[in-house]
Design goal:
The complex is a heterodimer. Chain A is mainly alpha-helical. Helix content of chain A is 65%, strand content 6%. Chain A has three domains: 49 residues; 217 residues, MetI-like fold; 160 residues, no CATH class. Chain A contains 15 helices and ten strands. In chain A, helix 4 crosses helix 11 and helix 11 packs across helix 13. By secondary structure, chain B is of the alpha/beta class. The longest helix of chain B is centred in the C-terminal third of the chain and has 16 residues. Chain B starts with a helix and ends with a helix. Classes of the chains: A mainly alpha, B alpha/beta.
Chain lengths: 515, 257
């Protein structure tokens, strides 16, 4: 400072500002205050709900999850209670979740396929294709999805009645106003051996294919690497199908791991997890310090940096406290469930298994007062079909617009440059236009995937057994409305976050380097 | 016509026709962009196309590799006539390189991948060989150290040089330049023009739309002046810059020089 000729004109504010003017201190204080306030509000609401529910004689908590359901589900992986497989409340909710996931996943796939085709046709040079897709989009996106779903239900309800000889192929494919039933393929005892052997062989194929690809790059020409790799893969599937029992040796290994895992004393587990928690904090601080390192040496750490490092340390210490004092059951739960997991896996590879990886059953009809589908076939009820068709067509019209917009967002100069280089139309589309359109398409496409997942809750309008409909049945029976809604929220949040995670990671990979 | 001009004209007349346009007409809706253009570019000739904006210069060279479709007249490129036959179009496009005003590099690919894309997918070259050629071309345009970067990381002049290398990778017989320096900062124009001069000295047949009169005077074998979709005057640089015949040419040159 003394060497600075302008020192006289610099207003000296002192080395450090007082605490109430320090931006870093203020920032962190406010953030902590808000965090504590939010947690406080939640705490208050939960406590309030507990008192009021107890006053009404409704038990608080999630113990009711193990109660028997005492109701039947219209469809799903388990519909009725039986002595071998009890249908508890938690099991019923799980069936609902699986139904939701099934329709969401299938809906996402079909809506994407239809949407991409329609979106590209809207840009087609063919007049008929262009007009048809315009009408498709404008009609479907302007009618509320609920109306479309109920309309589909009405249309499907006008199909023929279900009798013993309903076709088109009685005993194999049955279509009626109750839905469609097909032969069902299911995973048989040999499935896990089959998959593990296939994985081992696929790793080998990957190496071979890579050496072929390198040769193609060296020598040029078209050596049909893709075709040859696919051929090898088909051979691998056949080999795994026949030879899958050889993987039976994994069973005892998994059992041994299960025993070893189960033998971990609680104290050891707590110690290990504590080491992980503290190690994570130390690693984070180390990385943080590394990022502050410049070629000229360590950058001066500002207050904000110190707050971050202290926060990381405190968070890991809280974690350790939770492990030993707050919730010691967590460690023993991890010991037990880990052991269970490996045990179940060991079971799957156990002796006497290793037969066919898949098996199939024909649909049957249950004879009662009313004829209905039995549970051997793959049955899609009209409720499923109505919800599925409504969601797929509605969402595909939005996806079509997103695809069209994404392609139009690529400057015309790009396809001109590709054409001027001699690339034909399909090469230009695949190598130049679509890779660039994708980065425009991905974020709004992710939104549509979130929408389709959340809109499956409209199944309640047509009586499809998805999570909301099942949950409603549950809280109508036991009045656990808040608890059921907390399960809804966690479930949908998990779905949405998973989709966002996937979409964001794809997006990062597609991002264009600008500078 | 001076003696030197006469000698050049005789020399050109003896060479093979690379691009022949006969009575080329083109409409955009009601607007007629080309009103019957007759131009012939000879082998190893550098032809510069001049004219005010909207005179149809860009439309003409975009018709030559069928980025625009002409409605009347014939265009013959290296003996192949441009028709709706996709095989002819593909053959011509792979023999004719084009450099755009806006570079039109593929932003999602690295510089090296930009250059090797067409040789690998159109010429079915081996990747290693295509990359070797690409590196030689980058040496030639003076930016081998930028091979692994993305277009967005380069300056305008560097991007345009990559675009030239990308066209050259297809080993074209003819290069078309559509105002290659118009989108560049003044200090970057020279580096692109140097590459183009180098190319011209190497005997490439070139058709260049540009406003760079220095380049036209130094490099061009012949100049074409266009206005409102018509070819007004064709001649050597000496003829153009000393005693142009047409009034419209004189007016244009007086405004631009």
């Amino acid at each position: 400072m003394t060497d600075n000729p302008n020192a006289a004109s610099v207003i000296q504010l002192g080395g450090r500002p007082p605490i109430w003017r320090n931006a870093a201190v203020l920032k962190w204080t406010v953030q902590f205050a808000v965090l504590i306030a939010v947690l406080g509000v939640f705490w208050f609401l939960i406590a309030e709900a507990r008192t009021n529910l107890s006053a009404k004689g409704i038990p608080v908590g999630y113990d009711w999850l193990d109660d028997p359901a005492n109701f039947q589900l219209a469809e799903g992986i388990q519909t009725v209670d039986s002595p071998e497989r009890r249908l508890t409340m938690s099991r019923a909710l799980w069936v609902g979740m699986v139904n939701t996931l099934r329709i969401a996943a299938l809906g996402i796939i079909f809506a994407t396929i239809i949407g991409v085709i329609v979106g590209i046709s809207r840009l087609s040079k063919n007049y008929v294709a262009r007009r048809f897709s315009s009408v498709y989009v404008e009609t479907l996106r302007n009618i509320p999805v609920l109306v479309q779903i109920i309309l589909w239900l009405a249309i499907l309800g006008s199909l023929g009645k279900l009798t013993a000889d309903t076709g088109p192929i009685p005993g194999w494919i049955i279509i009626s106003q109750k839905g469609i039933s097909l032969p069902r393929v299911f995973l048989a005892d040999g499935f896990y051996q089959f998959v593990s052997l296939l994985i081992v062989l696929s790793i080998g194929i990957r190496f071979i294919s890579r050496s072929w690809r390198r040769r193609q790059e060296r020598e040029g020409g078209d050596q049909r690497v893709g075709l040859k790799t696919f051929g090898l893969f088909v051979v691998a599937v056949v080999v795994s199908w026949i030879a899958n029992p050889v993987m039976g040796f994994l069973g005892p290994i998994f059992d041994a791991i299960s025993d070893g895992w189960g033998a971990i004393p609680q104290g050891l587990m707590q110690t290990l997890l504590s080491v992980v928690a503290i190690g994570a904090a130390v690693a984070w601080i180390k990385r943080f310090l590394n990022s502050r390192r410049t070629p000229a040496g360590m950058a001066k750490l500002i207050d904000d940096d110190w707050f971050r490092m202290v926060f990381a340390g405190v968070a890991s210490l809280i974690g350790v406290w939770v492990l030993w004092r707050g919730w010691p059951g967590l460690s023993s739960w991890m010991v037990n469930s880990g052991s269970d997991f490996w045990g179940v896996l060991g079971d799957k590879f156990g002796d006497g298994r290793g037969a066919m990886p898949f098996d199939a059953m024909r649909p049957t009809l249950s004879e009662g007062r009313f004829v209905n589908y039995g549970d051997t076939g793959l049955t899609l009820t009209v409720f499923y079909a109505a919800l599925f068709l409504g969601l797929v067509f509605y969402t595909s019209s939005f996806i079509a617009e997103i695809v069209r917009g994404g392609i139009l967002a690529v400057p015309a100069g790009q396809s001109e440059a590709a054409a001027a280089l001699g690339l034909n139309r399909s090469q230009a589309l695949r190598k130049v236009v679509l890779p660039q359109a994708f980065r425009v398409i991905m974020p709004p496409l992710g939104n549509q995937y979130l929408n389709i997942t959340k809109n499956t809750s409209l199944g309640i309008a047509v009586g499809f057994s998805e999570i909301v409909q099942v949950g409603q049945t549950v809280y109508n029976k036991n009045s656990q409305t808040l608890a059921v809604f907390s399960i809804y929220m966690i479930f949908y949040l998990a779905c949405s976050l998973t989709i966002s995670l996937v979409v964001n990671s794809v997006n990062r990979r597609l991002a264009i380097v600008e500078r | 016509m001076s003696i030197a001009d006469q000698a050049l004209t005789d020399d050109l007349a003896a060479r093979r026709d690379m691009i022949v346009c006969r009575g080329v007409k083109k409409w955009f809706g009601d607007f007629q962009a080309l009103r019957g253009v007759d131009v012939t570019v000879k082998d190893r000739e550098v032809m510069v196309v001049l004219g005010p904006s909207g005179s149809g210069k860009s439309t003409l060279i975009r018709c030559i590799n069928r980025l625009e479709v002409h409605q009347e007249g014939d265009i013959v490129v290296d003996g192949v006539e441009l028709t709706n036959d996709t095989r002819n179009i593909e053959k011509i496009r792979s023999e004719v390189g084009m450099v755009f005003q806006q570079f039109n590099l593929f932003p999602h690919l690295t510089v090296l991948d930009n250059i090797t894309l067409a040789p690998i997918w159109v010429r079915k070259k081996a990747k290693a060989e295509a990359e070797r050629t690409a590196m030689e071309l980058l040496e030639r345009v003076g930016i081998p150290e930028q091979a692994a970067k993305f277009p967005g990381q380069l300056s305008g002049g560097q991007q345009q040089r990559v675009a030239i290398a990308r066209s050259l990778a297809m080993e074209p017989k003819i290069m078309l330049f559509d105002e290659p320096t118009s989108a560049l900062d003044p200090e970057m124009i020279a580096e692109v023009l140097d590459v183009m001069k180098d190319l011209a000295r190497g005997g490439m047949t070139m058709m260049v739309v540009t406003h760079e009169m220095g380049f036209a005077r130094e490099v061009a074998d012949r100049l074409v002046f266009m206005e409102s979709g018509d070819v007004v005057e064709v001649g050597t640089p000496e003829h153009f810059f000393t005693n142009p015949k047409e009034e419209r040419t004189k007016l244009f040159l007086s405004q631009i020089l």
